[in-house]
Amino acid sequence: xxxxxxxxxxxxxxxxxxxxxxxxxxxxxxxxxxxxxxxxxxxxxxxxxxxxxxxxxxxxxxxxxxxxxxxxxxxxxxxxxxxxxxxxxxxxxxxxxxxxxxxxxxxxxxxxxxxxxxxxxxxxxxxxxxxxxxxxxxxxxxxxxxxxxxxxxxxxxxxxxxxxxxxxxxxxxxxxxxxxxxxxxxxxxxxxxxxxxxxxxxxxxxxxxxxxxxxxxxxxxxxxxxxxxxxxxxxxxxxxxxxxxxxxxxxxxxxxxxxxxxxxxxxxxxxxxxxxxxxxxxxxxxxxxxxxxxxxxxxxxxxxxxxxxxxxxxxxxxxxxxxxxxxxxxxxxxxxxxxxxxxxxxxxxxxxxxxxxxxxxxxxxxxxxxxxxxxxxxxxxxxxxxxxxxxxxxxxxxxxxxxxxxxxxxxxxxxxxxxxxxxxxxxxxxxxxxxxxxxxxxxxxxxxxxxxxxxxxxxxxxxxx
Length: 465
What we know:
The chain is α/β, with parallel strands linked by helices. It is built from 16 helices and 14 strands.
């Protein structure tokens, strides 16, 4: 049996020993739910643990195990799980009657005003919805509706949710790179009209826009790639994107669902000094609730308004639970805390992220296992609380582009996604894609324990591989 198989079997045995109740719950779930759950990324092999509670840096499972958690609600919980200040205020909302009513309420106005103000107070409007997928979908609809064009341009390796417009160029496929479609059931015409360009590659961006500029409705990009590998865009790249899109009448869309309020108390666009036409926000702005938003200039956002008539109006209705008052209140509390405490919160997050990345690199080096971490900032982004671990298959892999991270010929994807996951779980740490997001609740004790868990994983890898 190969070393990888022997290591996997060892880890599965250890994991099963500590998660018997979760295994029973999972078997029950499999009988009535697709693959035993409602979100694929939460359903790792051999089965996921089932959470019974979470607070601060940690989550507990139904077996009584506690894990230091870096998933943190899909990277939404920048203050940690269930922060007291939000729980206290939401409890007050519940006592006044916070169940869904289907009516407009004041808190949404305050949250919208906060978003506009933190983006520089420019002439802008906001509409709320309930997920990042919906927010990015609406940015594409707005772009196509306003321009009358039929092509969408995105980054290879960029994930913008499960919108039909953007389910292309997410996973790396040998032989075609990031050019593939990610799902059955999509209209071939929509897939064909989605173009893919290489991240941080100005020449490729220039070429595609030169060839198709009069048909491209929008270029959507994350200023700091999420699933694509926790890689920051260069300032020059985003400036070129702004220049080219403006020249060709293309709307520039920033997906700041992960990056918004993660690095500073506003969108990352503020640090770059590059103003997009539309921005999608989510995760952190909801304070642990289902909140996403599209923010854009007044003339673009008014394409949603009823006065334009049926033929010219983009039907951006948000959804049944959009702008639910309790959700808006949670978002206000979250952003208020981040804005008021920015001078201490963001430097602390950056220090913790750096300490964790350097510590993980050190313990793997001590074990003699080649490793590379992404998630660092750059000349524009002053430190980062994100981290992702990669295992190069050969020397001198650059890790500048999603291809380096997702091409299994360059990096051992299974070792990162499956084996490392289990090796950390049996040592009390939960990660996704080999890493995750540090919150303000992760203190020195948790960081040290996490580095030690990675050290145990490194020694196992050395022993078996």
